[in-house]
Design goal:
The complex is a heterodimer of chains A (about 650) and B (about 180).
Chain A (H helix, E strand, L loop, with lengths): L2 E2 L9 H5 L7 E3 L2 E3 L3 E3 L15 H13 L4 E7 L22 H13 L3 E6 L13 E3 L13 E3 L2 H20 L4 E6 L4 H6 L14 H4 L1 H14 L5 E8 L10 H14 L3 E6 L19 H10 L4 E3 L7 H8 L5 E4 L1 H5 L3 H6 L14 H7 L30 E5 L3 H12 L3 E6 L8 H4 L10 H14 L2 E4 L5 H7 L3 E4 L17 E3 H5 L8 E5 L3 H11 L4 E5 L11 H13 L3 E3 L2 E7 L2 E6 L4 E5 L2 E4 L9 H6 L3 E4 L9 H14 L1
Parallel strand pairs in A: 1-3, 4-5, 4-13, 5-6, 6-9, 7-8, 9-10, 10-11, 11-12, 12-13, 14-15, 14-17, 15-16, 17-26, 18-25, 19-20, 19-25, 20-21
Antiparallel strand pairs in A: 2-3, 22-23, 23-24
Chain B lengths: L4 H34 L5 H20 L8 H20 L2 E6 L5 E8 L2 H7 L4 H23 L3 E7 L8 E7 L2
Antiparallel strand pairs in B: 1-2, 2-4, 3-4
Helix pairs in contact in B: 2-5
The chains are: A alpha/beta (about 650), B alpha+beta (about 180).
């Protein structure tokens, strides 16, 4: 009889009726998990740089544990060697000594406090490790493809055996700390995946050779960990179903499935199915990949092994995993980024509050930050990684005010609902008849940008539920401000688009918003002025229509404002669509049928074009002086303050919403 | 003001050529520094070859993200040959990669090289110019070989500084 750790009854919840497969129990080893939800282990760089657990990490994990409503909640993977070769993140938790158990116990207790099942993960980062030391360890000495990673040196046979022992010792500490499920990380370029892959394992001893030899260290780890965990603690492993490393002679899909079978034979109680390495040249998890795109890999895994299969990649809404479970293609719905963006996401699904979910926009800022030694941050969730910080929690306002917010874009609406939740009377105005601001146009760009609108949909719901009064189709004027005389005005009006010299009354020069909304006529040969994200978005939008597009911008590189974990994709798409970018340049003249470009060092050259699309933006000064002249408290946020991106707009709005 | 294409291109070209000639000169200036620092017992040839190795190692690292095996061995070797020829082009030379008659064989032919001219200015022996070039290319291959688990070699068959009119290097797969 499988052990039940916490009693849960979902029968009265609407989500359990809408998604019955997500909220039905499953046996994992010898325990019963009441639902199919898992917060997958995710690094957050919130811990002490010596590997000790911090209050910030405990609070971060507690909120995710609340979200899984009784399901599996995994803490980040721990590194296990004192030499720190296996440490891949500066704030990664350590577990190479008993001194770490106390802190780890705090995490297990926090998860248990939410009646969730606490998962512990063993993660030697291998090829992407050694973040704090000069060099790392690997099955073979294979040079790094990306310079940001440290050189790796081949482990001796004795060092491999020691590494296996370290995994087992760390698992024992995880058990002592009170965790209920044990997991081994063997994905994306971490050490176990290095052993499994033909790309990085060239050994000739018992830990190399054919796929069975390359799996030997994994087998020994699974068996050793199983032994210390005993029958009541299930042991799972995360494995690549496809490495996407064909360009460097990585494993074939068949070999990857072989690793699944060998893990099952070795005693694994479940497999978390992933794909791709950090070095893969194919996009896997960004928003240009359709939702549910990778479910076929979970299905293939199910066809190859009998143990439960879990998967996270591009499954942001409950319908797809629910159906996949019903169809026998999946057993667990894993989440990383979607619960970074909204820690209570599955709880809201259960409670029938899906409209209150703040969906991840798959920008990968969280990953970009972690790879650059910065603490976790979410593009659209300002509270993420600040769960422990009282200053980031909305509290009732001491002095309730009447607030006028000008602009119903992401910045204005974020501010509006936060301020309204705190007890203020909030009125939000927009001259347009619909909410969304410039995101209405930005979301027209190709490669998944329509997902950006989930942010606006969430904010609109939250505003409505918080009692924010909308005044759409109403332009705020000096007279309106004088008539209403609010206590506070928040200007979230979005940016203005500068007029290029000589472009007045020139109908060949149009604005990015007019192009994306279809209001402007655009010729076949187009120059986009501005090489930041809006310029790239509109360039791809027009190139997809078959137009010849050239970008001219002042930034040194195109996509200067896009995080590196997403930007590389844009560079590929620009190339694929034949878009040429002249960076470090300005438009000097606009003539009939051409523009003159001037480089930063003074060279001049012409580019033929029928239309110039202005995507450069400037701060919006309108209404500022009027409000100040009335002596009204004033805040300027979002692009109206400094044109940036969606993330800055949301974060500005949230902070000012807390501050008023 | 209309663009005077001839003037813009001339200005750009002149600056490019100046920058290219500085590549060789900078190398030889540093060579002199290294020889002086190393002291009277050091052999200039050893210093030059060591420099070529270090530079080759670094250039090889730059090659890794740009090469891929997806199109098979033949395309891979041709891309590698072009990348090697591209080093000469960047420096102001003229070089191309050509498929050899035998499978797994690429020839890199350079008919104009800025290094011997610069070397003369600094009194560098011509044999040193030829050998450093060969060592540079060989060292580039070291990381490429390990990374892609292959065994490629490169051999210099002709060299301009040896008075043979052109450089000819054979890139081939070793058995």
């Amino acid at each position: 009889m499988a052990k039940v750790l916490f009693e849960w009854d979902y029968s009265s919840y609407p989500g359990a009726k809408a998604y019955p497969n997500l909220f039905k129990p499953i046996q994992l080893g010898n325990i019963t998990v009441p639902n199919r939800i898992k917060y997958a282990a995710t690094e957050d760089n919130l811990n002490d740089h010596n590997g000790f657990i911090t209050d910030a990490d405990v609070a971060y994990m507690r909120s995710r544990a609340e979200g899984v409503v009784g399901g599996l909640c995994f803490m980040q993977g721990v590194y296990m060697d004192e030499a720190r070769k296996g440490q891949g993140y500066v704030g990664q938790a350590a577990c190479w000594d008993d001194k770490y158990v106390e802190g780890l116990k705090r995490i297990a207790d926090a998860i248990h406090g939410e009646k969730a099942i606490a998962g512990f993960q063993l993660m030697d980062c291998g090829r992407v490790g050694a973040v704090e030391v000069e060099s790392g360890h690997a099955p073979s000495t294979v040079p790094q493809r990306l310079r940001i990673f440290k050189p790796m040196y081949e482990m001796t046979n004795a060092e491999v055996k020691e590494m296996v022992r370290q995994h087992v010792e760390a698992a024992k500490r995880g058990v002592d700390a009170g965790f209920d499920v044990m997991e081994i990380s063997g994905i994306v370029g971490y050490l176990i995946s290095n052993f499994l892959s033909s790309y990085t394992n060239r050994r000739t001893d018992e830990y190399g050779g054919d796929i069975r030899g390359r799996c030997q260290s994994m087998v020994e780890i699974i068996q050793g960990v199983k032994e210390v965990c005993g029958p009541d603690i299930p042991v799972g492993i995360r494995l690549c179903s496809e490495e996407l490393l064909n360009d460097v002679k990585g494993n074939t899909p068949e070999e990857s499935m072989e690793t699944y079978k060998i893990a099952e034979e070795a005693g694994a109680d479940y497999i978390s199915c992933t794909l791709g390495w950090q070095e893969s040249i194919f996009p896997v998890i960004s928003r240009d990949i359709p939702q549910g795109n990778w479910l076929y890999l979970a299905k293939r895994a199910k066809e190859n092994v009998k143990i439960p299969i879990q998967m996270a990649y591009r499954l942001f809404t409950p319908d797809k995993p629910d159906k996949a479970i019903a169809d026998g293609e999946l057993d667990f719905w894993e989440m990383c980024r979607s619960m970074i963006a909204d820690p209570l996401m599955p709880k809201k699904v259960l409670e029938g509050r899906e409209d209150e979910i703040r969906h991840c926009v798959a920008c990968n800022l969280c990953l970009a930050r972690l790879f650059r030694d910065a603490p976790m941050t979410c593009y659209i969730n300002p509270r993420c990684a600040h769960e422990h910080d009282d200053n980031f929690t909305p509290k009732p306002a001491e002095d309730e005010k009447e607030i006028m917010i000008v602009g119903a874009g992401p910045s204005g609406m974020e501010c509006a609902y936060v301020a309204a939740q705190r007890g203020h009377e909030v009125h939000i105005y927009d001259k347009r008849s619909e909410v969304g601001g410039t995101l209405l146009e930005a979301s027209q760009a190709p490669y998944g940008d329509e997902e950006l609108m989930t942010c606006v949909n969430y904010q609109k719901t939250m505003c409505e539920k918080a009692g924010v009064e909308f005044h759409l189709g109403e332009e705020v004027t000096e007279q309106l401000i004088a008539d209403e005389m609010p206590d506070t005005v928040v200007l979230a009006t979005g940016p203005v688009y500068p007029e290029l010299e000589g472009s007045a009354d020139n109908d060949k020069v149009v604005n990015v918003l007019d192009v994306l909304s279809g209001r402007a006529d655009v010729g076949d040969t187009v120059v986009i002025y501005g090489n930041r994200k809006p310029g790239i978005g509109v360039a791809l939008f027009l190139a997809k229509q078959g137009k010849k597009v050239t970008i001219v911008g002042k930034e040194k590189t195109a996509g200067f404002d896009v995080n590196p974990s997403f930007k590389w994709r844009y560079m590929i798409y620009l190339k694929q669509n034949g878009v040429m970018a002249y960076n470090d340049c300005d438009i000097e003249e606009i003539n009939d049928g051409e523009i003159i470009v001037k480089t930063y060092d003074g060279y001049r050259f012409p580019i033929k074009c029928d239309t110039v699309v202005v995507s450069e933006r400037e701060a919006n000064e309108s209404l500022k002086k009027i409000v100040q002249a009335e002596g009204i408290e004033l805040f300027v946020i979002g692009d109206a303050l400094v044109p940036r991106n969606l993330s800055s707009a949301v974060h500005d709005g949230y902070r000012i919403g807390l501050r008023i | 003001m209309p663009v005077n294409a001839e003037k813009e291109i001339t200005k750009l070209w002149r600056n490019l050529h100046n920058a290219q000639s500085e590549i060789c000169k900078t190398f030889y200036r540093w060579r002199e520094v290294a020889i002086e620092v190393a002291g009277p017992d050091a052999k200039p040839m050893d210093i030059a070859l060591k420099a070529a190795e270090m530079m080759g190692k670094d250039i090889g690292k730059n090659f890794l993200p740009r090469l891929n095996w997806l199109k098979g061995e033949e395309a891979f070797m041709m891309n590698l040959g072009r990348a090697l020829a591209g080093i000469w082009v960047t420096e102001g030379g003229t070089a191309i990669a050509e498929k050899g008659e035998n499978p797994g064989e690429i020839f890199i032919r350079c008919t104009r090289c800025p290094w011997p001219t610069a070397a003369k200015e600094f009194g560098v022996p011509m044999e040193e110019v030829a050998l450093t070039r060969e060592r540079l290319f060989q060292t580039i291959l070291e990381d490429v070989n390990v990374f892609f688990n292959i065994n490629l070699n490169i051999e210099m068959l002709k060299a301009i500084p040896r008075g043979e009119g052109e450089y000819l290097l054979k890139l081939y797969k070793e058995n």
